[in-house]
Design a protein that fits this description.
Elements lengths: L28 H6 L4 E2 L4 E2 L13 H5 L10 H4 L15 H5 L7 H10 L8 H25 L17 H7 L18 E3 L11 E3 H5 L25 H22 L1 H22 L10 H17 L7 H18 L7 H18 L7 H31 L2 H4 L30
Helix pairs in contact: 6-9, 9-10, 9-11, 10-11, 10-13, 10-14, 11-12, 11-13, 13-14
């Protein structure tokens, strides 16, 4: 019977191979992808498979509270309790909210102050005022072209600010005391160069009442009181406008962001109007004055209030104080230029110190600081009112020169061209003072 077993071929049996210690057998790509260098390949033992690597008494809470995909639960390790949101601000009175309180917590207000973040993001009122002043200046140039045939005044005297003639500026609304009250040295019937005059000496002669415009005077005496306000929107020339708008869009804009538009409106116009009141009292009566400088100086004064009220919250306050001092000195020096009035600068600055103290949102971290600020605010209110009333009354009822003969030199540098700052400062033979 045939055998049930097949013969075994020797070629099918595994052959002994010579051991080569340098030779490393090739491994499959699948093996390389799944190979764990920390596991025992011979026994298939994975050290990470032990429970001690995944669960222990120390990190059991971390594993059990592990984050879902795309989330993070790190806070569970570091905090016994989840972080709490800041407490809501206490409800404040309407006036306190107007001053900046009650909108956020004290710590939030401090953080915002340190970061330079104000009550509102955009200075809407500054933008509106800047657009209005640019539009009014275009009107000034058109008025001068209609009167003299050119948008800029070059005859008989050049306006170095690159703008209209002085008679055109007076006619449009510059501060000019002879148009506001009766001045014996400059009566309404006094002859003066007409708007269209370009000759020197003047060949076209008009009266003060003609130059003042706005329909003349409604009685025997000048009565154009609105010239305390209109000069804020007027500028003597292109250079004057650019300098003021640069300051307004930087310093004034930041003050509006921090105060809010309502408080800024009060400070801006209180400073601008009072600056013209002070200038009408003590500057040369025959020199027209105009510009937003007094109002802008008022916003600079508010920046001083902010610096001293929040000294420890400002970055390098000493350096900032030095810079602001230099800025103030330069502004006063500019006040000696024709058409620009230092009294408007100084008056706006002083008035804004009081009004800014009243309306600027000050952060008080202690009861003592709050009492001090409240005291300053209470005292500032009557002082601001008294200054307005006394100086306005003094302008209409008294001779300011009699009270302070040397004050004129604060806004007039004596030269031969201005008669050493003596007299009224008005001449009939030129189109600029």
């Amino acid at each position: 019977m045939a055998s049930q077993y097949m013969p075994v071929r020797t070629n099918d049996l595994p052959q002994d191979e010579t051991f080569d210690p340098i030779h490393i057998p090739e491994k499959s790509k699948a093996h390389e992808q799944h190979h764990n260098p920390y596991s025992d390949d011979e026994r298939g033992y994975d050290h990470y498979g032990e429970p001690s690597y995944t669960k222990s008494a120390d990190d059991s809470s971390l594993v059990e509270n592990a984050a879902k995909v795309g989330r993070s639960n790190y806070q569970d390790m570091d905090y016994a309790e989840p972080p709490q949101p800041p407490p809501p601000a206490e409800k404040a009175s309407p006036f306190a909210r107007f001053l900046g309180g009650g909108q956020s917590s004290l710590q939030q207000r401090i953080d915002m102050k340190r970061r330079g973040v104000g009550r509102q993001r955009y200075p809407y009122l500054v933008w509106l005022l800047t657009a209005a002043m640019c539009a009014v200046f275009i009107y000034e140039l058109i008025a001068n072209k209609n009167a003299q045939g050119s948008v800029l005044s070059f005859k008989p005297v050049v306006n170095y600010m690159l703008g209209p003639s002085s008679t055109t500026l007076i006619n449009i609304g510059a501060r000019f005391p002879p148009c506001m009250k009766r001045i014996d040295d400059v009566p309404p019937t006094m002859p003066i160069a007409c708007l269209n005059n370009t000759a020197n000496p003047a060949t076209e002669i008009c009266t003060i009442e003609d130059i003042c415009g706005f329909g003349g005077f409604h009685g025997k005496d000048p009565d154009q009181w609105f010239r305390f306000i209109t000069p804020i929107f007027l500028h003597a020339g292109i250079i004057h406008l650019l300098l003021n708008m640069l300051a307004q869009l930087s310093v004034s804009a930041q003050v509006e962001r921090e105060m809010g538009s309502a408080g800024f409106f009060i400070v801006y116009f209180a400073a601008g109007i009072f600056g013209n009141v002070l200038g009408a009292n003590f500057a040369l009566v025959g020199r027209p004055s105009l510009g937003a400088s007094g109002a802008i100086f008022g916003t600079v004064a508010v920046a001083w209030v902010d610096l001293f009220a929040h000294w420890k919250y400002h970055f390098r306050p000493g350096r900032k104080l030095a810079f602001m001092t230099v800025e103030l000195i330069i502004g006063v020096a500019v006040g000696f230029i024709p058409f620009v009035d230092n009294f408007a600068h100084l008056g706006g600055f002083v008035m804004a110190l009081f009004v800014g103290t009243i309306f600027y949102p000050v952060i008080s971290v202690s009861r003592r600081h709050k009492i001090i600020m409240t005291t300053f605010r209470v005292l500032a209110i009557p002082v601001a009112i008294i200054l307005f009333v006394v100086l306005t009354r003094n302008f209409y009822t008294s001779d300011p020169y009699a009270a302070c003969e040397g004050c004129r030199y604060l806004s007039c540098f004596p030269t031969a061209s201005n008669n050493r700052c003596r007299g009224t400062g008005l001449t009939m033979t030129s189109s600029s003072p």
